[in-house]
Hints:
By secondary structure, the protein is mainly α. The chain has one domain. The protein is 92% helix and 0% strand. The chain contains three helices and no strands. Helix 2 runs antiparallel to helix 3 (108-119). It is rod-shaped and about 150 Å long.
Amino acid sequence: MIYILNFLKKHWKELSLITLLLVNCFFWQKDHKNLLKIINETERIHQEEKTALIESYKNEASRISEVIKKYEKDMAILQKEKNDFIIELEKKKVVNEKEIVKMRRDDPQQLIIKIQTEFGFEYVDE
Length: 126
């Protein structure tokens, strides 16, 4: 027993350093395990967020696709209405031209009055 006490007295610095090193290793190991848990949790959260973003992107892409289809459908309807309107306008134009030509032939005075009232021109006889 005296031998152990003499040994401890003689090498107390080295033993305290070894003890400190062992305690330090223990805490380092504990911190390392906690860091690994944090890294794994962070990776899991990252994967969940990535999956959510991909799903959100897919939903947004499908919504945009639907909006584009609706836009194209509406544009086709408007284009058809425009074409129908142009055809109807051309028909009215032809009928109106025929009426004006007939009015000029049959009753030129009536044509003069119509032009004066519609456009505000004043008829001047040469």
